[in-house]
Every structure is written in structure tokens, then in C-alpha cells.
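Summary for the steering committee. The consortium agreed at its last meeting that each partner would contribute one worked example illustrating the joint modelling workflow. Our contribution is presented below. We chose a case with several input lines so that the handling of multiple components could be demonstrated. No manual editing was applied between input and output; the record is shown as generated.
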Amino acid sequence: MNTPTVPLVDPQVLDRIRGWRGYAEAKLGFRNHWYPTLNSSEVAEGQPVPFQLGGEKLLINRIDGKLYCIKDQCLHRGVPLSRKLECYSKDTISCWYHGWTYQWADGKLCDILTDPSSKMIGTRSLKTYPAQELKGLVFVFLGDIEPTPLARDLPPGFDEADRRVQPFRRVVNANWRIGAENGFDTTHIFIHKDSRLIRGNQTMLPLGFAPNPNSKEPLFETRHTEGGNIGVFDLLAERGVPHFEGSVHGEVVRRAIHGGDKHIAGQISLWMPGVLKVDPFPDPAMIHFEWYVPRDADSHWYIHCATKVVEGPNADAEFAEEYEALWKDLYAHGFNDDDIWAREATQPFYQDDWGWLKEQLFEADACIMAWRKLASEHNRGIQTAGR
Amino acid sequence: MNTPTVPLVDPQVLDRIRGWRGYAEAKLGFRNHWYPTLNSSEVAEGQPVPFQLGGEKLLINRIDGKLYCIKDQCLHRGVPLSRKLECYSKDTISCWYHGWTYQWADGKLCDILTDPSSKMIGTRSLKTYPAQELKGLVFVFLGDIEPTPLARDLPPGFDEADRRVQPFRRVVNANWRIGAENGFDTTHIFIHKDSRLIRGNQTMLPLGFAPNPNSKEPLFETRHTEGGNIGVFDLLAERGVPHFEGSVHGEVVRRAIHGGDKHIAGQISLWMPGVLKVDPFPDPAMIHFEWYVPRDADSHWYIHCATKVVEGPNADAEFAEEYEALWKDLYAHGFNDDDIWAREATQPFYQDDWGWLKEQLFEADACIMAWRKLASEHNRGIQTAGR
Amino acid sequence: MNTPTVPLVDPQVLDRIRGWRGYAEAKLGFRNHWYPTLNSSEVAEGQPVPFQLGGEKLLINRIDGKLYCIKDQCLHRGVPLSRKLECYSKDTISCWYHGWTYQWADGKLCDILTDPSSKMIGTRSLKTYPAQELKGLVFVFLGDIEPTPLARDLPPGFDEADRRVQPFRRVVNANWRIGAENGFDTTHIFIHKDSRLIRGNQTMLPLGFAPNPNSKEPLFETRHTEGGNIGVFDLLAERGVPHFEGSVHGEVVRRAIHGGDKHIAGQISLWMPGVLKVDPFPDPAMIHFEWYVPRDADSHWYIHCATKVVEGPNADAEFAEEYEALWKDLYAHGFNDDDIWAREATQPFYQDDWGWLKEQLFEADACIMAWRKLASEHNRGIQTAGR
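What follows is the complete predicted structure of the assembly.
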């Protein structure tokens, strides 16, 4: 299908971008990458669930425990199959409109209930996407090539044995890149200066950081995971000077809250195709991961993962209890709710793409630029949702 | 008035359409054709009613029993006259803003209440459209040429003496062509397989039809009415093989409901400028007609007409009673309500025009293609709403 | 920042405009002019208030009694400062996101709370706009040049000593030019023919005016104020023939209401950058002024000012009482509410800019054309909101 020349991104903006054009183009995310979507528990046997990813309408189902994901759009007239689900056999779904019937496994048009003699049968296939489960999350490979190993799109440590994961998914009305840059940006901790988490968990957070004037060391570093993924570390917190006092005209006007001595957020890194690791967080014994999953051009799924290594037979249940009792309110809400409104307040400036040119970044944003370049060089394709 | 080059339909789509470009262009319907609009009973003497047709705002009035239709937009500043109706003489309407006064009969600017000396008076005219009543429906000739006889835009039999008509108008949020193709498409009966009408009226409906493999006969046929209109008949039901069982992987997974032996929907035909005839329907003694009237690019009036030949002095009242008591619920709602959501579920795929290229039609759609070609060749113009 | 070629106004329309292109371009108003905004009483010491002007988001504050207006958009990431106000010193405002801190007086980036060592500090400035108070209104100079004296953008008499002003601000969902032309247009009095004000204040209003057939005198005249502003007077009321009877087909169909003998609205003039003077109105002892302040392309602030010369120590309080007790209901609502719906009913025709070409003006609109030409020639720039 030819693409209309009506572009997804303003071409005048793209022409002015130097060094990270691919990222500027990726308004709907990247093609040929794994993205987390629903929770495993949300996809029950034989009960298809519709959702949106990279601007596409998808439908996922569980058959004999295994997951299958297809495009939620009949080949014939383009209607969403999910408008009225009709599954007449375990391994197929039929369109409510003319009975075009597709196999979940390969998308093949295997029957047409209104015309069993149609020559279309067996010669057409609906787009399918590989799906896989890990740590209670359903990952979908939004692509056309032979799927890469899931590990290549994971942040380091996420798939570690005995690491328990509590995912919490929210829709944020901002482009996924606004989400990623909000999370990775070290100095955005300024918006968390009054977060309940700080006192509530006896932690301590500076107001910001300044690069070390006596050092020429870069403030970021690109690394690979064992799984083969690539990401960038923000080293400002490590190599810079933390500030616990904010001054205006040389007078201290604001001090950081000292909730206690717990050291958190020592290492912050952002990985392809858009997942943040904060280690440790929100507690010395925990690691925080968050994905920014493109739903459409103007919204993303903020998939917030509290994780902890817990052993023993009841480890999952134990951590689930601890999360519900303590962390969900204190940090998922008490800390990260501020990031949600911050992203939504940033979106209008970037919505027409011109914000990428009008913004004025400062020293602490070095890691943001590093991320944009990395993402432009190391993605496996730009998602365009068939446009 | 020059047309802006901002086109109503994506030119890149039009360039790719072969054989039925005119239909692809007719997003707002056709120019110089008769369309049904309001019910006669809705237009009372001296009480103008505003409505929308082909993307234009119109205003219709009844004077001494006769109907007059004008554009609902003052020539001066383009305001809708209907925003505040001011009629100071039986045969005129005055604009609430500056008192520009137009004659219903010819649209002529006959007076300006704020400046009786204006040179504009008598030299300008508001656009008028011929209007005519038939069988309780108000027809408007949306055009600029000498109006053709109404019969040229009617389906055969509609104007038959003693044929009683019960019109039922609904707004459907889909382009009028989505409506027409939904109604004409034989195999869409699949969505009606559980309709209350089937058991409720002891009828029987197959799940679908297959072309007869041993026949080379075309599955459609173009015909003319005595009145001079042209339409296409879907012969799939006649020449094809009805299927009462639907199979997946060779196993029967769904059987059609046998409500009884009543034979319905034997002949289905679609006529210019967009009106369907189903004969007989929903009962052997009745004929169903439905018009798809363009309101704007994204919605149409679904004018549903139950008809029956009834003689005698109280024929109209008798059929009205029968319709209210039985048919309105059982078929207008119990059958055609499904078509409404089906059309609205189809609309998004075609909304940006690219659906016309992305769709994948099958054998049973032969009549749809025939209709598109016929409509492209035999329309009297494309409606563009002055753009 | 380069401007995208996506134009604010349809270039095909601009190419067809003869003699007043600048006005057709001024969809967001004019640059380098003074506009009234909030009431003085709405801007309290140290309590910034956000508002919109010419498509820009602005923020205004009062410091030691003086007003300061800045762009409500952080230089760094373009977020609105007003989303979460953080002022750590009397003369600065800090962005809630990364602590970028600006001086109200000159917009200079004087500190960054998250990185006091940033080289950006002192080298960047947020856009500021001069603000000034007069007669209880806050005026903002929406421009980039050395501000002109406020008097150059005032209608004559507004700043007269002892003239008391009662401002009343409403949002109208129509472009500011639709507002200005509605107010200036003499014959629009037709919509006021039933206004409560006429009987309520024993005044008398004709239905309209006709140019004097025996006179060749122009129906408008351009004049300057002592302050240096320029405006156009509509002389139709003065030189034309008032009509108290409206006729259709030579028969009187409507008579003007004679509420009494009070003569009002003798002189009507429209001044840059878009402010109307009606003298006297609504009472022989009063003068009415109204500004049409562009908020964005599709709405304006209708700032309605009842004024009267009253002397003595309690003059302001006395007039305020008189206004609340009598005028606010009888004329602000009882007369001008009709102008609000008239403007909103006119907006759709002009929204895509083509209305400027499709309209058909008549003799009484001579002053409207004069205004358009004057505004095109004498503006100090076109507001484009950085696009």
C-alpha cells in the first residue's frame, strides 16, 4: 500500500534536525522491536482483548495458554474484528461482517462463512505479531522481520531469576518521547522535591546536579546488555555535584528535604526501544523500570515496574503484598504521579514537531541528546502505522 | 467563487482509482439529483425547517401548501437565516442581521429592511432548490440545471399507485457510500443471522451465497426504470448457491436460523442517486426501499421505507397502524439497527479516502464494483458544497 | 525560529484580496500595539495570572504595585510556568520543571536551581511585554519594538480626566475582526430592534439608514486623535436617511420601537488596533467603548466599557453603583448580548478565510471597507504567534 505524502512528521522540521533525525521521525515509536503491553493476567484463555500499539489496532488472544496477536482490522473492509467478537473455533476468529475467518497462529484467511468457494481463501493473511510473556507482562514484537530475542529489547537485570515484578500501567496524554525524556532527565527530580516518598521512605533527593567544573569526563556513557540491547547511562549524578540548596540572586530560597539517609537513584539508564532503569529505586533493595509505550502520536502507556529479588515458594505473593501495602501509594502515586502531569504539560509544545527546534537544552540534557542519537542509530525501523 | 485547491478527496487516492473515479469523488453525493429529506408532516405551513444536504445548509418552507427550499445562508455575511427566523410576509424571509429579504419562490433579494434604496435589491438571488412531495417524503433537487422529472431518480415501483409508504429517518455517522454498500452487499446478511425478524416473522435467511461454479453468468445486471433511472441488480442470490451452514476447517460451526418458510429478499437492486430496493421485504407482501442521503462527508440520513400496496379509503391509516404495531420494532429496529453500527464501524477505514485502495473485495462484491462504475458514469455531477 | 510554511491564513485567499491584505492576514490581531486585557483588580500583588493574547500564552504579575508581563512558556522545554507557580523571590519566577528562574522585569534567566553553574544563566531571556494600567484596565503592548505611548492606541476621550470606566469582559467564540465589524456596522442595529434598552431607557433606534440619494458626500471619514491614533467614523447615521419603518413589497411590515426621545449613538467610530467608540451611548450622558481583543484565531475578548464623566471624591464608587444597579443588565446584557450570538453565528462563514471572498457587501458597508483598508495601512505589524 503506497504511503500518502501527507507525512506523520512535519518535513520542514526533519530537514532541520541534525544527528538524530530517526528519533524525530519516530512519533509512533520504532518498528521491529518488542514492547510490553497488557498484563498476562488480563489475557484469559479464549478471550481476545483489543489494544493499541504504535498507532495500530491490535487484538490478542490466549489459546492453550499461548499468546497470539493479530491486527484488529479485517482485510476485506477494514472493520475492527473486536467490534463484535465471533470465534467459531479455538484457533480462529471470524469477522462479524462477512464471516472472513482468520487463524490466530499465522493470520491466514482459512475460511469465509458467507462464501466457502471464494478464491481468496488460503491466499490472504492478516498481519500477525509475535507475542511473549515475561514477569507477568505481555510483550509484542511490533515488526515484520524474524523477531529478535526478547532479551535484545530488555534493560539489564529485568529478566533476572527471582526478580519479582509489579507492573502498573497508565495512559499518559503525551508522546512516548516526552515520557522517555521526562524519566531519563536527571534534573527533573526538581519536580519531586516535595514527593511523599522522600519523607515516607526516609530517602534523600538533591534539588539538582551541576557538572564538575574540574572534570572533562563525559556526563553519559553508552553500554550494551548481555542480551545485546543498547542504552545510555546518565552519569551526571555520579560525576556531577549534587545540590541540596537552591539559590536565587545568591540567596538560598529552597532546601531539599532530608527524609533520611537512604541512598536511591544512583544509576539511571535508558534502553531501546524506550525503557528506563533506576537502580536502586525507590528503596535500596529495589530496582525501578518504566517503559514508554507508544499508543498513538499523542499518548503512551506508562508501564511502571516495581521490582525486587525475593526467593522462596511464595516470593511473588509476598512481594505483591508488600507492593500493595506500601509502594503503590507511596511511590507509584506519591512520586511518579508528578511525572504524568509534567509530561502532559510538555506535550503541547512538541505536538506539531516544532518544539524539537524551539527547545533550548542545557548542560544536564547532554544525556538526552545522547539518547536521541543512540535511538536514531540503533533502532530497527521507524513505526509509521501503514501511513 | 473559485474553489480552494484544498481538495475534498485526497488527490493521491483519486489518481489511483481506475474505472470509478467519479464515485470516489462523490464524498458529498451527486449534484443535479433528487434526494428525499424530511417527512411531509414535518414541514408545516409557514414554519421553515433547517436541514443539511450534500454538505449544504438548507431551509425549507411550506407556503399555501407548496414547498420552497432555499440555501440557509445570507448572501451578505453568510449567516444562517435559521439562527433567528424572521418572516415578515408570507412569501419572503428576512435575515435577522441586516434585514436582507429573499423571496422563497426564486430567492430574489426583493427588499433590504435596513436600506430600501440599496442597489443590491433585485440584482441578487439566494440559491433555491426545487422541492416536491411524494408518498409522504419531501424530495429536493440538489442542483443547478433544469430539474429532471422526479421519476428519473426513483427506484422502480416506489411511486406505484396505492403503494403506502412508512418512512423512518435516522442519522448514521458514516459516509453515504458506506451506507449504500452495506445495504446492497448481499453477503452482509451475515450480520443479520440473529436478527429478531427471522423468528419473529417466520422467515429464513441463509448465512451467505457462493457463485455457481458451473455458471459463467454475471452476478449483476444493469437495468433502467420506466421513469428513466438506472440501477444495478445483485443476482448472486438468484444465480448463486445459498449457504445455510457455515464451516471452519470443514466442520459446521454455525447454522442459519429457520424462522419459517417465508421467502424474502429475492431481488436486491441499487439505484441512482443512492437508493436500495429489496423485493419482497420484510414480508412477502411488502417491498423495502432505503435511501442513503449525504448530510456531510461523515454522516448520512438513513431513510428507511416500509411499503405495501393497500387499497381502500383508509389504506394509509391501516398500513400506518400495521407498521407501528408490528414492523417498526421487528424490522426497522430488529433487523436494520445492525446495519447502523456496521456502517459506523466501517467509516474510520474509509474516512481519509485510503480505504478505497486498501480494501480487498471478494467475489460477492462484484455488484459493489458494478455499482461504483455505474454511479461514476451515470451521475449528473459531483456535489462539492461550493468548495 | 523559522516559520513553518503552514500558513495561518489560506494563501489562496490572500492572493485574491485587493487593498486590505494586511487585515486579512491579521487573524491573530496586530503586533506592536497596546491591547486591554484583565481588570486591574484581577491582578493582585505577587499573584501571577495567566491569560491568552494574540495566540500567545502570557503571565502577568504585580510587584510593588507595578505590572510585569512575561511569556508563559519556559525557554528550556516550552512548558507553561503557570501549570505550577513557583516564585522564590519577589522579582522572579522559577519553572516547576527544572528550576529555570526568570526576572519579571526583563525576563532574564538569572538562576537555574538545578544547576547554578549552567552557562545558560545570564545569557538567555524570556520574552517580556510592557504592561500599563489605565481606568481600571491592564493594557499590554504585544510587540517587540520600543513601546509606543499608550495614547496612540486609545480611542479619543477614553483617557479623559474624570471619565469613569466600568469594564465588563466576555469571551466571544468568533474571530476579533468579526467582532469589530459587527460593532462598527451601522445597520446591524436591526438586530437590536427589540432590545430591552430601547423601552427601558426611553431611547429610540431606527431600523436602518439609507445613503442620501442627493448627496455625493462619502459615508465615512478618517480622523486622528490628539494622542496620534487613527480611526474611521461611520457617517451614515449623520448623512444618511434613518428608517423607522421596514417594508416588504412596498408594505410596511415592521416599525421601530419608540421607547422615548433620548438621542443615542450619534457618532460611531472604530480605532486601531480594534476599539469602537459610540458617543453617546447608552445614555446621552455616557460614552460607550468596546475592544475586540484577539485571544486566538477563533475567539476574542469582548471588553465592554460603560463610561461617564463624574466628578468628586466618590465618583468611581458612585458610577460603579449606577452601573450595577441600572446599566449592566439593561444595556450590557439587554442590548449587547445580541451582538455576541450574532458574532458567533457569523464566525463559521469566515473561519476558513474564504468568507472574505464570498461575502457580498452593500452600501452601508462602505465604512467596513474603509476600516479594513485603514487597518491594513496603519498597523505596526501582523501578529503571528511565532508561527
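The radius of gyration of chain B is 23 Å. Chain B touches chain A through 43 residues (CB under 8 Å).
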